[in-house]
Write a structure and sequence with these properties.
The chain has about 230 residues and is of the alpha+beta class. The chain has a single domain, classed as minor pseudopilin epsh fold (3-Layer(bab) Sandwich). Helix content is about 30%, strand content about 20%. The strands form three sheets. Strands 4-8-9-10-11 form a five-stranded antiparallel β-sheet, with helices on both faces. It starts with 20 loop residues before the first helix and ends with a strand.
């Protein structure tokens, strides 16, 4: 004690009070995120980005598949109208494409089996391909969706033709060659199914033609059932 006043003992820090644990935690919080916290946040952001990208890609693939099916259905309608107008029969054919060339579908106006300038034509969207009849899923379920009941109707689907054919009455038919002449009789009920698939997503759609000439689009649920889209 000096002059009646208590002496304040000095310390190594010049008499300043030592920081408490509470003060240390407060400064740590004010200093920002730790490395672990930053890694967690970055990981969550990357996961969210992957989910968003996958959803966007799936949506784009679905749109491309649906656009191609609609374009193909419209091409069939063109073939049907053209057959009535020209009083002839016309077949819609597809090409597999290759390299940078996408698959196409065209109305074979000249009947040569190959595309010629002036033929109505569409190009399939990226990743979408025409598929063989035998590869299509749940054919029986699909047939029940657009064909009337009965054995004759269910057996009317042409499973071997290169593509749907329409005769002068605008009805689907199967070309027959006899005596050097090819005709397309409509009296025998004929229907068609064309399958298209997005090979990236694995999703299917189908374009059908009933014996009455009605053209419809269907989507597949990936399990066993087709649903009409128009």
């Amino acid at each position: 004690m000096r002059d009646g006043l208590p002496m304040i003992q000095g310390s190594a820090n010049g008499g300043r009070p030592q920081p408490t644990r509470v003060d240390s935690l407060a400064r740590a919080k004010m200093s920002g995120f730790s490395l672990i916290e930053m890694l967690i946040v970055v990981s969550l952001m990357l996961i969210a980005a992957v989910v968003v990208i996958e959803n966007v890609q799936s949506a784009v693939q679905s749109v491309r598949l649906q656009e191609t099916a609609t374009d193909y259905a419209n091409l069939l309608q063109q073939a049907r109208v053209r057959a009535v107008r020209d009083d002839r029969y016309y077949t819609v054919l597809t090409t597999a494409g290759g390299g940078s060339n996408p698959p196409t579908a065209f109305v074979d106006i000249a009947g040569t089996g190959v595309y010629a300038v002036g033929d109505p034509v569409i190009m399939f969207s990226a990743g979408v391909s025409p598929m063989s009849f035998g590869s299509g899923p749940s054919v029986a379920n699909l047939a029940s969706q657009f064909l009337p009941p009965g054995t004759a109707a269910q057996n009317s689907v042409n499973t071997t033709a290169a593509g749907p054919t329409f005769g002068p009455r605008g009805l689907p038919c199967t070309p027959l060659t006899s005596g050097g002449y090819t005709t397309c009789p409509y009296l025998t009920p004929t229907s068609y199914i064309t399958f298209v698939q997005n090979t990236l997503s694995g999703k299917w759609e189908a374009i059908t033609v009933s014996p009455a000439g009605r053209i419809r689009e269907f989507s597949y649920d990936g399990v066993s059932t087709w649903s009409g889209m128009n």
